[in-house]
Design a protein that fits this description.
Blueprint lengths: L1 H16 L3 H34 L5 E6 L3 E7 L5 E7 L10 E5 L5 H14 L9 H14 L6 H11 L5 E5 L4 E8 L2 E8 L10 E7 L3 H19 L18 H13 L29 E3 L5 E3 H8 L26 H25 L1
Antiparallel strand pairs: 1-2, 2-3, 3-4, 5-6, 6-7, 7-8, 9-10
Helix pairs in contact: 1-2, 5-7, 6-7
Length: 363
C-alpha cells in the first residue's frame, strides 16, 4: 500500500512541478531508499520474533536466520524430516516469500507436490509476516500426512501392481493402507499399518478378508511377515565381505508378494502334472482331497494327488525337482531323503512282483 501511494504521489508531483529527469531520478532514489529501510526494519523485527518462537518448538532446528534467508530443519523421525529454506524477495512483505524444500528421506515427487502447495499458501500472507506461518504450515503437513514416509512405495503400488478392478484406501490419521486386490473370482483384502519410525520398523500386516483356500491364506500371511522382517533385521548368517546391514522399506516387498506373486498369479496357475487349474474356478467350491491344493517351497501349486504320485516315482537322485521351474521340491508331507524314497520304491516294486507271481501261480 505504501509503495502504491508513493507511486501515485510521484506521478502527480512530476506532472505539476517537474519536467527535468534529474529531479525525478533523485526523488525515485529517495523513495527506494525509504522503502528499503522499511523492508529491512520489517525483516529485522520478524527475524527477532522467529528466534524467540523457534526456541520452544519441538522438532524444529533453526539453522540460519539472517536478513537474506531463514533455514530450518523440521524433524518428526529420522526418516520423516526436511529442510525448509525461506528467502525474502526484494519487495517483501508485499510479495510472497520464496520457499525451497529439501530432504534426504522423502521422495522427490512428494517434495514437488508440497512445494507447489507452499507456493500457493504463502500468497495468503502477503503484507504480513510469513516465515512462522509457513513453518507451521509445513510442520502440520508432516504431522497430518503420516504416510508421506512411504509415498513413493504407494505410488509404485498404484501404478505397477494394482489394476482398475482393485481398490486402495489411505488413512493418514491412523497411518494405514487398505488394499483389495483381485484376479478372476478370487480376492484378498488386507491392511498395512505403517509404524511411526518406519522404515526402521517393519509394516504390520492384517488380512481382513479373502476367498482363497485357508492353507494359502496362512502361507500368504506368514511369508509376507517374513519378507517384512528381512527388511529390518540383519541375516542370522552374515556373509564375509557384506556391508553393514541397513534397514530398508518393507511396505513394497510385502505388496509385491501379496499382490504380484499371490493374488494375480495363483488363480491362473495350473498344476505342473495334470495341467489343469489348481484352484477351483468358482470359489468357494468344495473340492475332494485329491484336488486339494499343495504349495511347495518354490511357490508352485499342485493338486494333492498329483504331487503325491509324482513324489513316489523315480528318479530320486538329488531330490525331486519341480517340473515348472527345476528347483528341488520341499514339502512338510514329503520330508524323506532321496535314499529312503529310492528304498521304498524298490521295496514296493519287489512286493508288486511277488503279488504278480502269486497271481500267476494261482491262475
Amino acid at each position: 500500500m505504501l509503495c502504491f501511494s508513493l507511486c501515485l504521489f510521484l506521478r502527480k508531483f512530476n506532472r505539476q512541478h517537474y519536467n527535468g529527469s534529474s529531479m525525478k531520478d533523485k526523488l525515485l532514489r529517495r523513495i527506494t531508499i525509504t522503502m528499503a529501510k522499511d523492508r529491512d526494519k520489517f525483516i529485522a523485527d520478524e527475524l527477532k520474533e522467529i528466534r524467540n518462537q523457534c526456541e520452544g518448538l519441538e522438532g524444529i532446528q533453526l539453522v540460519t536466520c539472517v536478513p537474506d534467508a531463514v533455514a530450518m530443519i523440521i524433524k518428526k523421525t529420522d526418516f520423516k524430516q526436511l529442510k525448509l529454506r525461506l528467502m525474502f524477495p526484494s519487495h517483501y512483505p508485499n510479495e510472497p516469500i520464496i520457499s525451497e524444500l529439501n530432504s534426504k528421506t522423502l521422495s522427490e515427487k512428494l517434495l514437488d507436490g508440497l512445494q507447489k502447495v507452499c507456493d500457493d499458501e504463502c500468497k495468503k500472507f502477503i503484507g504480513n509476516v510469513q516465515v512462522m506461518k509457513m513453518l507451521h504450515f509445513v510442520n502440520k503437513f508432516l504431522e497430518d500426512h503420516k504416510l508421506c514416509v512411504c509415498s513413493s512405495e504407494i505410488a509404485y503400488v498404484k501404478k505397477e501392481l494394482l489394476k482398475d478392478c482393485d481398490e486402495v484406501k489411505l488413512r493418514q490419521k491412523t497411518s494405514q493402507i487398505i488394499i483389495k486386490a483381485q484376479q478372476e473370482k478370487y480376492f484378498l483384502n488386507f491392511k498395512l499399518t505403517i509404524p511411526e519410525d518406519y522404515p526402521k520398523t517393519q509394516v504390520q500386516l492384517e488380512i481382513i478378508d479373502h476367498n482363497f483356500p485357508e492353507l494359502l491364506k496362512v502361507n500368504f500371511e506368514a511369508q509376507a511377515v517374513e519378507y517384512a522382517r528381512q527388511c529390518v533385521q540383519p541375516p542370522l548368517r552374515k556373509k564375509p565381505g557384506d556391508p553393514p546391514f541397513q534397514p530398508k522399506p518393507s511396505m513394497l516387498p510385502v505388496c509385491k508378494y501379496l499382490i504380484g506373486e499371490c493374488v494375480k498369479n495363483y488363480p491362473l496357475q495350473k498344476c505342473p502334472m495334470c495341467f489343469c487349474y489348481v484352484l477351483p474356478q468358482n470359489p468357494p467350491e468344495e473340492v475332494s482331497k485329491e484336488k486339494q491344493v499343495e504349495r511347495v517351497y518354490c511357490g508352485h501349486l499342485y493338486h494333492h494327488s498329483c504331487l503325491a504320485a509324482y513324489m513316489k516315482k523315480p528318479p530320486f537322485i538329488g531330490g525331486k525337482k519341480c517340473p515348472a521351474c527345476g528347483k528341488r521340491i520341499f514339502h512338510e508331507k514329503w520330508k524323506i531323503t532321496p535314499e529312503l524314497a529310492e528304498a521304498r520304491w524298490a521295496h514296493k516294486q519287489a512286493r508288486d512282483r511277488e503279488l504278480e507271481e502269486v497271481k500267476d501261480f494261482m491262475a
